Amino acid sequence: MNIHTPMDRLLGGVNIVLLIFVTLAMLFPFYYMVIVSFTSYDEFVTKDLLLFPERWVTDAYTFILGTKTFFRSILVTIFVTVVGTLLSLLLTTMMAYALTRNITGQRVFLFMVLFTFVFGAGIIPTYMVVRETQILDTYWALIIPTAINSFNLIVMRQFFLSIPKDLTEASVIDGANDLQIFGRIIVPLSKPALAAFGLFYAVTNWNTYFNALLYISDPAKWTVQVVLRQIVILDQASSLSDGAQMALGQNPPPAETIGMAAVLIATIPILIVYPFLQKHFAKGVMLGSVKE
Predict the structure, then answer these.
(1) Is 208 contained in some domain?
(2) What's the CATH code of the domain at 79?
(3) Cα separation of 92 and 201, whole Å?
(4) How many domains is the chain built from?
(5) pLDDT tens digits, residue range 25-72?
(6) Where are the transmembrane segments (predicted)?
């Protein structure tokens, strides 16, 4: 029987208050982003801190949705995210499974993975590799260099090692080869892990910024994060108009409101996808941490 003392109740109340405070502190930037994106130009320039707009306007969204540049960057980012995530999951799971088998040079390959996990190649050597492989200024430059994450690979390998060997040994007796075991046994049992690491890879690819800035020189192939940089940091919202200014019939909204609206639009896809993966994600993040 649990007996809660007054001190326990006091500490519990303090923890609840602290958690509520931390939650509000984390949600406030998102709230402020929404408020600013729907604020009029006059109200934005006259008030130092906006907590609730007096008049809700959609000028920033009209401006963004009237541009071709932002839509093109969204499509580019969706392509990089979908293809990059699928390729990363395929390569990560196949290599992780291979490192669980008794193959020649297994320790050497595992050491190479651990070495890249501790020591990175650096910006210049990586750029030279991308250039020499002739994928510079292509979408593959945003996908291939980050296709496999060493940490995800190691955790995925540990998860595969936690799968009972009786399943794979019985399949071998039945005449199944490694590819059949991987496709019919390992992958179906790895759905929680695939959901967790798929979300990790998807968020990484969706937020691709530095690699796009480094490897892509064609503005038509910029990701949405690079376009947001043009809007927020360089204050070049007017260069993205493509007729949106004429649609408004006035000067474009401030770059700050356009930036907030663009960030909100770019964040919505991840927020939509996450609830569908949450069931597997909560379980998958712990898989492979302890070998059964």
Answers:
(1) yes
(2) 1.10.3720.10
(3) 11
(4) 1
(5) 988 888 888 888 888 777 777 777 777 877 888 888 887 777 778 888
(6) 12-34, 74-96, 108-127, 139-160, 181-203, 258-277
